[in-house]
Amino acid sequence: MEFQKENTFIKGRLKSVTYACKGMFKLIRTEHSIMVQISLGILMTVLGFYLKISQTEWLFQTLAIGLVLSIEGLNTAIEKVADFIHPDYHKKIGFIKDIAAGAVFFAALTAISIGLIIYIPKFI
């Protein structure tokens, strides 16, 4: 299959959205880490409705969920490319994959902090 660039702006954008949706569904169907993060995102969304968090709290919670899912997706892409380039264990590939996982960890810590700031006062 040969990639052909669309000549019109709208057709090109629609193709881009189609590819993005395919990628999103592939992540959700195949990656356990994304499945876990989506489950946590759904749980926090249900909790937000139950505890009636404010509009500002919704903004921060939505941003945190999106941040973690986005970075997790990038981490998965980096891991897949690294495994494609060098399928066997290699010290430098391991280093790259560890850094990508560290980025997810930063995003997760940020999301946890936001969640604690939003929800601890609701339970106290």
From TrEMBL:
User: What does UniProt list as catalytic?
Assistant: 72
Classification via Gene3D superfamilies = 1.10.287.3610
Provide the topology term for how it sits in the membrane: Multi-pass membrane protein
Residues recorded as binding substrate, renumbered to this chain, are: 72
- List the signal peptide residues: none
Question: Which residues does the annotation say bind a divalent metal cation?
Answer: 31, 79
> What family is it from?
Belongs to the bacterial diacylglycerol kinase family.
* Protein name listed in UniProt: Diacylglycerol kinase family protein
